[in-house]
Amino acid sequence: MKNIDTVAQMILESKCSFAFTGAGISLESGIPTFRGKAGLWNRYNPNILDIDYFYNNPKDAWEGIKEIFYDYWNKAMPNKAHYLLADMEKNNLLNGIITQNIDNLHQKAGNKEVYEFHGTLNTLHCVECMKKYDAKDVSEKLPFRCDECGGLVKPDFVFFGEGIPELAYQKSIEAASKADLFIVIGTTGEVMPACSIPVLAKRNGAKIIEINPEKSTFTDTITDVYIKGKAAEVAEKLYELNLLKEIW
Ligand code: NAD
Q1: Which residues share a beta bridge with 211?
Q2: How far is CA 36 from CA 10, 42, 44, 162, 212, in A?
Q3: Among this protein's residues, is 125 annotated catalytic?
Q4: Closest CA to 244 of 1, 10, 2, 68
Q5: Cis peptide before 193, with omega less than 30 degrees from 0?
Q6: How far apart (Å, rounded) are the C-alpha atoms in residues 105 and 156?
Q7: What are the tens digits of pLDDT across the range 103-118?
């Protein structure tokens, strides 16, 4: 695989590295992307994730949300690429992850320092009394309403029309200010403001490695080393490299 040795060397030499991940890293865990040929928006109406639509049509929105996120995604397991990032963090080869994903797979793989730029499906809250719920609490009766006050319960992921969670945003900016290496995996780089984070890192002096079977908005603009490939397959190759085995 072209550039794989260079990437391993860059990882070993880095003093402060972060991964920046998108939907593509979870594809091999069976979670579809939103866009593209097999994307979810070919089967569902994206409106179900629009915040105004959610409040005005809670039953319809919740029926789609439950089916996509809680009957299916919630049962997905991490793949080799998630485990590689977890092993890297354990071995001090990675400082943390900024993820646009909401699927909790980085944490399931064992990563501790994860900034969820678009929130998480793992927790929910009542929009009236703020009572917290877990993914396993999602009711069969829809829309999901609070058992204390009857208010609508909303997943803690970012809907279209909502802001980015404050802490994740701050931590991501901080990471982009101090990193000397960013590993960008499985993202088109089209979603704002998330896509500004690797650009900021580059501006602050970080080298950019990119892993994606298709070129993204980053590839010909900020990427230093591009590996054309699927995340789990590239991870497998990195596991096989003696260079990294010496440490693991
Ligand atoms: P996207 O759907 O716009 O693009 C997916 C990217 O992954 C593309 O660049 C594609 O070439 C690449 N890709 C496809 N297969 C891959 C593979 N096997 N390995 C590596 N890369 C692969 O995804 P995005 O840029 O992350 O933006 C979509 C938004 O939707 C995100 O903000 C995210 O919050 C959300 N989303 C999240 C999930 C999830 O949590 N797993 C899934 C779908 C969408």
Answers
A1: 185, 227
A2: 31, 8, 13, 24, 14
A3: no
A4: 10
A5: yes
A6: 16
A7: 999 999 999 999 999 9
Q: For the segment 5-30, what is each residue's pLDDT rounded down to a tens digit?
A: 999 999 999 999 999 999 999 999 99
The pick from 77, 187, 238 for probing ligand 1's pocket by mutation, whose C-beta has the most ligand atoms within 8 angstroms, reads 187
Number of neighbouring beta carbons within 10 Å of residue 205? 10
Tell me how many degrees the CA angle 143-147-150 measures, rounded to the nearest 5: 60
pLDDT of residue 248: 60
Residue whose structure tokens are 């001090």: 92
Distance 42 CA to ligand 1 centre (A): 15
Pocket test for ligand 1, best of 33, 50, 117 (most atoms within 8 A of CB): 33
DSSP E strand boundaries for 135-228: 153-157, 181-185, 207-211, 225-227
Residues composing the chain: 248
Which tens digit of pLDDT belongs to each residue from 205-239?
999 999 999 999 999 999 999 999 999 999 999 99
CA angle 121, 67, 42 (to 5 degrees): 100
Ligand 1, pocket residues at CB < 6 Å:
22-28, 31, 33-35, 100-103, 118, 185-188, 190-191, 194, 212-214, 216, 230-231
